[in-house]
Amino acid sequence: MVERYGLLPRVEHYGCIIDLLGRLGLLKEAQGLIERLPPIKRDATAWRALLAACRVYGDVKLGERVNRVLVEMDDQHPTDSILLSGTYAIAGRLKDLGSLQVTTEEQLDAKFKWKSLGKEESRVKEAGCSMIEVDHEWEENIDGLELHATMFPWQKKQ
Fold this sequence. Notes:
The protein has helices spanning 2-5, 11-23, 27-36, 44-57, 60-72, 78-90, and strands at residues 101-105, 109-116, 119-126, 129-134, 137-142. By secondary structure, it is α+β, with helices and mostly antiparallel strands. It folds into 2 domains: 2-96, no CATH class; 128-158, no CATH class. It has a 3-stranded antiparallel β-sheet with strand order 1-2-3, with helices on one face.
């Protein structure tokens, strides 16, 4: 990258590559890349991208390892346990979900309760937001809220 484009690879570049490897199912390769990175570029975002791929492919063993790394880095985020719980579900290990409970607060925040490393914790996950342009107007959707009826007029309600 330096020779061809004159750019020094930054954390974001490595994160994209790790995400791509994960999406391709090359989890071990993604893990190896993270572990070969200099510590300054081995951030929680890279590990979290790998954890998301573990959920997609149901790789519980690697998912648990990645979660432990994030705990050791002291850089936990509510998404981590949600991704790990999804990994258990995809792998058919529902008994390992612990006590995952979801409640809605004002339809914008969701509180997740789970067991993490043997102790019960609670985290708040902020709602996601997306925007789409329809007929030169921007429509906004907040996760968990029903989509505006005019956003997707080609979709008929059944």
